[in-house]
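Exam revision sheet. Question 4 asks you to relate a sequence to its structure. Input first:
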Amino acid sequence: MLSVVRALSQGSALLAAYILSSTFCSFSFYYFSDFGSYINYFCLYNMFSYSRLQLLNIMPSQRLSCSLWRNIVQLGISLTHPTRRGCRSGTKRRLRYAPSHRIVLPPAIFINGHTNASTSDESFGTISQDERVVEEDDLHTSLLNIQNNTSSESNNGSIPVILNQNGPIITSVRTRNPSNLVKPITLSSTVQSQSKSLSFGCVNARSLKNKTEVFSDHVIDCKLDVCAVTETWLKKNDTVTLSALSPSGYIFKNIPRASDRTGGGTGILVRDNYNIHLVQAIERNSFEVSEWNVSTNGKTSKFVVVYRPPYSDAHPISTNVFFDEFAVFLESIVMCTEVLVISGDFNFHVNQLDTVDARKFADLLESFGLIQHVNFPTHTSGNCLDLIITRSSNDIIVVSPQPSLLLSDHCFVHCTLAIPSAVVVRRLISFRRWKKVDFTALEKDITSLTDLSALDCIINYDRTLGDIADKFAPLQNKLVSARPKVPWYDDDLKALKTNRRKLERKMRKTRLPSDVSAYRVVCNEYSLQLKAAKEKYYNELILDCKGDSKKLFNVVNHLCNERTGNQLPQHSCPQQLADDFGNYFSTKITRIRDEIPKSSFHFIDADIPSPEVNLDRFSHVSVDNVRDIIMASSNACCQLDPIPTWVVKKCVVSLAPIITAMINSSFDNGYVPESWKVALVVPLIKKLGLDPVFENFRPVSNVSLVSKIAEKSVIPQLLNHCSSHAPLPVHQSSYRQYHSTETALLKVQNDILLSMDRQEVTLLVLLDLSAAFDTIDHNVMVDLLRTDFGVTGLALSWLHSYLLGRKQRVVIDQQQSSNFDLLSGVPQGSCLGPLLFVLYASRLFRIVEKHLPRAHGYADDTQLYLSFRPGPVSSQCEAVRVMVDCISEIRSWMAHSLLKLNDKKTEFLIIGSRQQLAKVNIDGILVGSAKITPATNVRNLGVWFDSSLTMSTNVGKICSKAFFGLYKIKQIRKFLSADSTKTLVHAFVTSHLDYCNSLLYGISKYQVDRLQRVLNSAARVTCCVPRHEHITPILMQLHWLPIFYRIQFKIALLVYKVTRGMAPPYLCDLIEEQHPGRYPLRSNDKNLLKIPRTKTKSFGDRAFAVSAPTIWNNLPKSVRDSDNLKAFKTNLKTFLYKTAFSL
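Answer key, structure tokens:
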């Protein structure tokens, strides 16, 4: 007998009753809520047959939130025949009344003194639509009241009846038999719905390559936690597709088909706060399967994704084979201790129970204690193919599977599982709403600093600006959790998606061909617009990043699924890790300095000429200079700045005079304020792929904006003084105007090639320093500035103050360590530090001059090279002795200057022709206590030198890096326009082709063709042209010069700079103008250069001293006589373009 109560109450009533039927010992539970005209009905029954309560009827149009639904489930209630509607967003669930459930009402129930005599069956069906809405907050309260009253009455056997909040509580006189009842599960006062269940989905995609946007959009919209996918049709190298399938907050794992047949493949998408582990991936004759363990909160669940291809000529495997193989597989996993969920496309019509295969499959599942839950068509043919299988003894289905979006000819299948979901990680962020600030009023407050003296401004600058920031943009805290980001989603897409859902509901209701067709049309339209919006977003983003290589690389790496975040050691407390890093960086420098051997080296100061003019003070900077420095600065700001850099730029008119006054006051007093000497250090891993241990990290400093402006004001004055009165070493190319790594390498290569032309062999040694910037001794630095460079007075006091008393704090996840004192070194990442190191190491070249005729340096990278005739053994021994003596004295000087030479990382290369190298018998050189053996090739400032200087190794490296970048661009080409593609090609391909390409002049045609193939491929990708198309028209369309002419362009450009005094002196010395002969000739006034004579084409003609005048003299006079550099580039490219394409 089924007992049901219908109750009506006036006011805001809450009613819950337990009624015990004496006839059948069954148990019924009633819950009523009347808020004005809202009535809610719940019926729970059949406790005698089942171990849980069943919710039979929920009124039409009733909406239940996720958290409320979880509360009902905790009471042991489950839905028997629900129909989900409008629950795509995951925030609301609407359950439709199933009219097949007929309910018998008792004759009368007394509530608050009123009698309800309307007990007929028809009266239940005539409830108006506006009476069927549930107020969720009140339902929560009611459920808690049920719990509390149930527990409070557990001892007396009476049945509580809860009336409205203003009415009394009436207790039934009948007693209950506790053995016939099941007590509801206790509810906690704080409900965390996300930790109670897991949203699961599965679908057969039939290729995800062209459905990435729609798939990701649907997953995000439904807030799925785990989604199993079959027939992904993806391969291991589809990195861009995998990236698109892994939106922010998710990870997609793909298992491609191992056999040669196309198609197939399984995959699984999980939230990134889950731990996922692949147990096994098997491809049997009849099916593919991947087994995954998904863990969260210490609990592990096993998800198995299965795809069984249908019988076909390409796959002639019978169902009997599948049953045998699948039975063996189930036998291996069914006894696992984890919660088991099996899903996928089995290609059985399980809804047709009259077929033999369907009955066999059902019997197979039953024999292993499994149950299949999908009972609706999942394919457009009307068959149920995509299944969700769990253990029958442990039913974890909270919300029964429901169909959703038709992704292919299969639809999504959604359900909710009673598996704890991952705890949502939330973090507290602090921010200021600067974009809503009234900058006119803010600038008025900033002008208050102008009333203070310069010294008071220095003291109060940070505090005053901090107070102004708190006034106009107060610091706000917000607890945020990571959510998938879809910045391209707009209102048009939202409206189109709403229309798609409407048509989907209509299609499922009517199943008319016209509605199906209309639904497919709007699905295609939504997919196209979604792709177009995504392409537009990334195109604009790439074009905005033009000129900022770091941002550009980050965008491309994100699209290519390459996570380039700074990987840190495992830690539980960022503050503790920051302190550990700070302590490590400090002790590392102390340890290195302790390892430096004591040296008796004494540098004779008399060998160094004293500067005739001293720099005794730094000149005042003007407001215009400070304004220019501010506007040219990057928008990246430091946590030490009271306001962001971009805000400083908006208020530059008010702030520039204040900052100028502070800097000039600092110069006048020869003192650097303490706040300017604090640096925040970020530990960066030295190379991607290294283990995240402390030894593989280097500190990168970031100082305040005002400190950077002061340093940038000092640098030009210090450089001008050195260039005029205390010249830096000629062969030191770092941080100097017109110098670069290419000019340094061009000089070294020129000297080696000319030596090879003279049948000589060259010993090339590349020195390596340990923590060069961090071990500089401050006292030695100050003495060197005074004696070698004539820096005295207030200027020397300012630099001394800049070095002393520096502090640094390590930053990890916005948590700062305590202060660590820097007793030595110059801060890496500062503006002035690199220049001070160049000055510090200037004496090294004076030592080299005593032993070797040539050497070159770029910052802490020093190259020593010595050429000799390889014939007699004595000349080889002498060359080695001279090189060893030079290195030995350099080590002594470094020890005296508290620098450490890394003996083991020093490299050694012997360069010469094959004939001359055959005569050499040198097995190595001694560097300190280490013996360095000759290498076959070395990396020198980003360029690879081989033993014969053929540059073949370097060309191979260039091709490898360029093709890798081109592969990335090819993968994301569908997102890009022609302009954004050109931007990426120049950043990832031609940048490698053009780096130091002047060194490639005269290499073999084979090597040039290798580089040309890269350029041709880049042109085809840019213009979307197939491989069989001729490349010349494409290059002409893009106005790209072939590789051979790109090399000539670079050399001619360097020659023009040499003739105009815009090149390093060591390159200018290699070029000589052609002097007129004794007879007046027409060529005397053509601005020609003298071409030296050489013996070999393979070596001598490749040297810059020979190739440069050769190329220059072949240019038209109109090109050579261009007025400025910009005009010369234009004229030169036009000439080479016409020459290359015979125009």
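Marking note for examiners. Confidence is low (pLDDT under 50) at residues 1-194.
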